[in-house]
Design a protein that fits this description.
The complex is a heterodimer of chains A (about 280) and B (about 300). By secondary structure, chain A is α/β, with parallel strands linked by helices. Chain A folds into two domains: about 90 residues; about 140 residues, no CATH class. Chain A contains five helices and eleven strands; from the N terminus they run H-H-E-H-E-E-E-E-E-E-E-E-E-H-E-H. Chain A has an eleven-stranded mixed beta sheet, covered by helices on one side. With about 300 residues, chain B is of the alpha+beta class. Chain B contains eight helices and 16 strands. In chain B, the strands form four sheets. In chain B, strands 8-3-10-1-15-14 form a six-stranded antiparallel beta sheet. A four-stranded antiparallel beta sheet of chain B has the order 5-6-4-7, covered by helices on one side. Classes of the chains: A alpha/beta (about 280), B alpha+beta (about 300).
Chain lengths: ~280, ~300
């Protein structure tokens, strides 16, 4: 239980949570007396053993999302959506526990604003998948488009294939795992959380990142402004091994070859230097 | 926003009029203002196919004399073609103001084009041995029905649904664009070109004509200029990423090829599907699924990526 009792120290050793959080954020630890705030008004109490499936082939996105909501209202905890047909904005705004399975590909803005469900996509996803995800897991079997996991705050977001550009842009927490390659500007303005890329990363990786950690197993075309190499520690190796094993993405050669990228914290927002002075420093 | 799409059949033909109509109709939400098609049949080097218009659609609602003026303008075009030695083989009326001519001609094509476009209201939409370019206001189904595109057998096609942001809602500002002197080139584009005026002035100094103020036309002129200078399509696309600033993804078609290029920021979408028989690409996968309905493996090309496929 060392990881729990020494949680704060472990996080800091890994380069996480080094800033002082102020005010109420998504990471506030709720007190028991705030129980009513654990559950969203639109969340449903579901039974994972109660299963339903339907064919979305002739339905528009609004009808598909309403059908998912209707099934959750009836207590279904496992929902299978067949033939999603790469339609946009499917599976969005689910705020409770749920096993949601898409038997096919999603279009743009799939599964945005998730807070709690476990989603599996047996296909590909388009741009901006899982935008603003807060908790739960989402696993995509094939490739993903650009801005995969934009602004996510929590949960595990996994693409077993390759993803487009700007993966994890504005990431505020959680974990993004990419089995293949990622495009340019991945981790742009990343603020917290962890991103793992098993393949290669495009140009300007981690550009203007504030905090957080990026791990890359392949080559990095180049680093963005203020993204700097970090030292891969035993804690990093342990965490990478555990996470990649969990999603069956652990390379045969292990994780020793991964590069770690962190914020250099030399940008203007970290001190009081004037922009012209900052240019001299950089 | 705009939506772009392309499809090419490797070593075969298909009803590409229907295919492109389906793809563009599924991208209607990206651009409802106008729709354009560039479709390519089997090239016939003995004759030219010319699509041209002598008025805008909205002109029909602005005056009692417009119907007579359209007839008069077309008569002048016919006279000028005859004067230059073009022999008309076939003539089709696409709409009251747009026409499709097949003709034989062995003179200076650029000179002929300039002479025709000197007629008031006349604009050549396309001219070549394989290319037919159709564009008008409305969604894909509307334009396709209007011009009878379903059933057009060909090898490849590109298309565009336009959301007007920087120029008017009219046919002149609609995509695809073509440019002479290199025949059979068409271009569709999604993005913004930020050094448009600098590049346009460079092209104009070299003698190229621009028919619109739409930045996308630059890409057609640029490509025609490069290929006329001896560039291969792939080289022209690569060079454009170096020389043209902005955020853009664009498709270029020639008589027997389809190419794509993506800018250095990869800011504009493109989804690509390749199989042994067909290559389809579009701003959104939903357009590809309109012609390949089963589950497929697709991916997003990366920044600065250039691809060319042969029909």
């Amino acid at each position: 239980m060392a990881g729990v009792t020494g949680g704060e120290t472990v996080s800091q050793e890994m380069g996480m949570h080094t800033e002082q959080l102020r005010g109420r954020t998504q990471q506030v630890f709720f007190r028991p007396e705030e129980e009513e705030r654990f559950v969203y008004p639109d969340a449903f109490d579901v039974d994972f053993n109660k299963r339903a499936e339907f064919d979305a082939g002739e339905m528009d996105p609004n009808a598909v999302n309403l059908k998912i909501r209707e099934l959750m209202r009836d207590g279904h905890g496992t929902i299978v959506v067949k033939n999603p047909g790469a339609q946009h904005s499917l599976g969005v705004g689910i705020l409770n526990r749920l096993n949601l399975i898409f038997e096919g590909s999603l279009g743009y803005f799939g599964c945005g604003l998730l807070d709690g469900p476990n989603v599996r996509v047996h296909g590909r996803v388009g741009w901006s998948c899982a935008e603003n995800m807060m908790a739960g897991t989402l696993v995509v079997d094939k490739n993903a488009g650009s801005t995969f996991g934009a602004a996510i705050r929590g949960g595990d977001l996994v693409c077993r294939g390759s993803v487009g550009s700007r993966t994890g842009i504005d990431q505020k927490g959680g974990t993004i795992i990419v089995g293949g390659d990622t495009g340019a500007f991945s981790g742009f303005m990343m603020q917290r959380g962890r991103m793992v890329v098993c393949g290669n990363a495009g140009k300007n990786l981690g550009d203007s990142m504030y905090d957080g950690t990026i791990y890359v197993g392949g080559t990095i075309r180049d680093l963005g402004v203020d993204a700097v190499p970090g030292e891969l520690t035993d804690l990093d190796r342990h965490w990478l091994t555990r996470k990649l094993t969990q999603y069956d993405l652990l390379p045969d050669k292990g994780v020793d070859h991964f590069q770690k990228i962190v914020a250099g914290k030399q940008l203007w927002n970290y001190d009081n230097l004037e922009p012209t002075e900052k240019k001299l420093v950089l | 926003m705009c939506g772009i799409a392309g499809v090419i059949h490797r070593g075969g033909t298909a009803d590409i009029g229907l295919e492109m109509t389906s793809m563009l109709q599924s991208l209607k939400h990206r651009g409802p203002d106008s729709t354009g098609f560039a479709i390519y049949g089997k090239p016939n080097l003995d004759e030219y196919i010319m699509r041209f218009k002598v008025a805008e659609q909205e002109d029909l609602e602005s005056g009692f004399e417009i119907h007579r003026e359209i007839r008069d303008r077309k008569a002048v075009v016919d006279a000028r073609m005859a004067e230059k030695g073009a022999e008309l083989i076939d003539e089709q009326l696409a709409t009251e103001y747009a026409f499709r001519y097949r003709f034989s001609f062995d003179g200076d094509v650029e000179n002929l084009v300039r002479y025709i476009e000197d007629v008031e209201g006349a604009e050549i939409l396309s001219l070549g041995h394989a290319l037919e370019l159709i564009k008008d206001l409305g969604d894909a189904s509307t334009v396709s029905d209007q011009y009878g595109l379903r059933g057009f057998e060909g090898t490849h096609s590109i298309g565009h649904t336009r959301m007007a942001t920087e120029s008017d809602v009219d046919i002149r500002s609609a995509h695809p664009y073509w440019a002479y002197p290199y025949n059979d080139i068409s271009v569709v584009h999604n993005g913004q070109i930020t050094n448009y005026w600098i590049m346009r002035r460079q092209m104009e100094r070299k003698g190229h004509r621009f028919m619109s103020s739409c930045d996308s036309e630059l890409l057609a002129v640029y490509t025609a200029d490069k290929m006329n200078d001896g560039y291969q399509l792939e080289d022209s696309l690569k060079q454009s990423i170096e020389e043209i600033d902005g955020v853009f993804t664009y498709l270029v078609a020639t008589a027997d090829k389809l190419g794509m290029a993506k800018d250095t920021m990869a800011a504009k979408p493109m989804v690509l599907y390749e199989s042994d028989d067909i290559v389809a690409l579009a701003s959104e996968e939903v357009a590809i699924r309109a012609i390949v309905p089963h589950e497929i493996d697709t991916y997003d090309p990366y920044d600065e990526e250039v691809r060319v496929w042969q029909a």
